Amino acid sequence: MQLQPGDDWLRRSIRTDAGTLYQRENTTLHLSNDGWVRTDGTPGLSRLNAGTTLLQVNHPLQNGVAFIRADHIRLDAGTFETTANGEIDERFGTCVFPGLDAQGTTQSLPGCTTGLRQKVQGTSFALGWQGDRFGFDIGRTPQSFPVSNWVGGVNLQGDLGQAGWSLDLSRRPMSNSLLSLAGATDPRTGIVWGGALATGATLGLSWDQGEAHGVWASLGHHRITGTNVAANQRTRIMGGYYHRLINEPDRLLTVGVNAMHWRYQRDLGGYTLGQGGYYSPQRYSSVSLPVSYAQRTDNWSFAVRGSVSRSVASSRDEPFYPLDNLIVGPAAALQQRGVTAAGLQAANTSTGTTSGDWGYTLSGMVERRLNGHWVVGAGFDLQRGQDYTPSRFMLYLRYTLQPWRGSLPLGPIPLTPYADFN
Q1: Is 182 helix (H, G, I), strand (E, B) or coil?
Q2: Neighbour tally for 147: CB within 10 Å
Q3: How confident is the model at residue 219 (pLDDT cuts 50, 70, 90)?
Q4: What's the whole-number mean pLDDT along residues 244-250?
Q5: CA-CA distances (angstroms) from residue 400 to 139, 154, 376, 378, 403?
Q6: Residue 211 is part of which domain span?
Q7: Which of 43, 308, 309, 370 could staple 374 via S-S, CB 3.0–4.6 A?
């Protein structure tokens, strides 16, 4: 059922609900390839070339939609830069492990000469169900990864007067880096660490009557753990306001303002043994000004979004090795060279920083209906900041078992990789 230019809000709502119900009762196959590239990071550590091929089947079940999916994930952080002796020249695992002796002279263990290439791949599987008021999913990160975890979530939605509320209880992977998502092996000790997980709850509130204005807010708290990774706590408060300058059945222009404040108990963004490899400044605040435009015709739909933002982040001093029990062997080797406990700590502590940055994002999506069954789409997402410049590209196909000639989404909505579920 397609929306018509002359529809008032009631007719538009009825047509939209009818179309949503029809599509919910229509078995749908999704096939997508999602590529993510970050070239500004350090080779072997934060640099990442990631690709995910997604296959998902949606099927109507019990007044909702059940899904089953497989995500084949490829992660390549590159090859470490090495010294003239072929040793890793970055703080990865315990490969750079110095200490100060009683005279204040730096003593260091030999560097690592193995594990120079950081690259993994594997397939995750998940299933779930989503209804109007309740949904759930459960899955497992690839078993071929150094660290594999069971993950999932439960979500509830409801109304509070004219406002809407949601509650998400979840256990999700931290997909910032190869270390945080897949885990890694320390070349010196052979200890496996990483595979960070965020377990907790997020409460959301929103008000939107389908007219010119809308607001949203969320509050979340999670405990972050991992295999041989120090425990952490994260609290996030976010909110925003948006205004629809154009609000037509087939055209939508929206501007707004968003603000967020995050707090982490510890900054565990490093790649040494016991760190998590995920972005975790102890204080982070940002304000952004987003703008988006979407339009559709009988067989085309596209959307363009952009934003400019200002952020401030700060962290205190943090030990490179937050779990003493993981470095007993290397520490004992340095003690034989006269390194004291205080000297070991002094040489292995990061200095706290405070920084501010301007950033911008630009993304676009387009999809084309080929016939009553097939839709093809593509998109990109660029993020640019002072030290963070990831780029994402995607291409997808969608097949519906029963033909559908109704309105396409006003702004395409691609599949999200399971590792990036909220």
Answers
A1: helix
A2: 24
A3: very high
A4: 95
A5: 24, 27, 12, 18, 6
A6: 9-80+115-316+352-420
A7: 370
Angstrom distance (rounded) from CA 74 to CA 27:
28
End residue of a domain, out of 351, 366, 396: 351
Residue that finishes a domain, picked among 326, 351, 376: 351
pTM of the model: 0.92
| Virtual torsion, Cα 43, 282, 318, 188, nearest 10 deg | -40
For β-strands 318-319 and 390-400, DSSP reports them as: unpaired
Same domain flag for 40 and 89: no
Token pair 């900054």: residue: 267
Q: Which residues are CB-neighbours of 318 under 8 A, at least 6 positions away?
A: 266, 267, 268, 270, 349, 350, 352
| Shared-domain flag, residues 216 and 345 | no
Q: Is residue 1 part of a domain?
A: no
Q: What are phi and psi of 14, to 5 degrees?
A: -65, -45
Instruction: Say whether both 173 and 274 belong to one domain.
Output: yes
Tell me if residue 118 falls in helix, strand or coil: strand
Kindly report the CATH number assigned to the domain that includes residue 376. Answer: 2.40.160.40
DSSP codes, 140-157: E--TTSSS--EEEEEEEE
Q: Specify whether the CB–CB gap between 127 and 69 falls below 8 A.
A: yes
- For 287-326, the pLDDT digits (tens) are 999 999 999 999 999 999 999 999 999 999 999 999 999 9
